[in-house]
Amino acid sequence: MPLRLRPTTPLAADAILVGDPGRALLLAQELLEQPKMSNHARGLWGYSGQTPAGDPLTIQATGIGGPSAALVLGDLAELGVRRAIRVGSCTGAPRARLGELLVVIEALAEGGSAAAHGLDPGEAARPDPDLTGRLEEAVGDEGRVGAVASFDAHPGAEALPTVVIGADMQTAPLLSRAQGLGVRLAAVLIVAEVQTGAQALDKEELESREQCAGQAARDAFST
Asked: What's the predicted TM-score (pTM) here?
């Protein structure tokens, strides 16, 4: 039995990963028909059910930061998850557009949590290419592909590497951990705030973009 998750219903082989339990609930209501809570241990809400197309899907909260997310992914792999898409948010570099969806093509390790899974500082972790291609197609005109950097603390006003469009706290550790577990993983991030001018999405705008990103992830699994 996994150490953190205590599933009360069977999990699907495909899972959407989100940091925030509230986002897990929002996407479960949006993407699943008659979702059932599959985990509430440690406040890591998870839901399982079927999409309108009849495909099994799990939506699982991973908590804040890379260490928590990597541990939860390990439990999910033990429980049978084989493909996963991270639906998260990020701080955009000055050239990012507020609210756009960023399909990650690589994530640079800028914190120690990624090192625990084999990444040196500044080294890039890359997602599953097939799942990423499906995700890019599903996102379409709602976003673009690009690189991100993953920090152990909220990136805030920190200088970002010039090659990245955004920064977050989970993607690089998750990608590296997924490779070690044999889980095919991709990621789509919502630009929820932009460093220049301290712009940020309000609650309703963010929820709308979360739904859009979740729908793209669901479609990427089914194509």
From this structure: 0.95
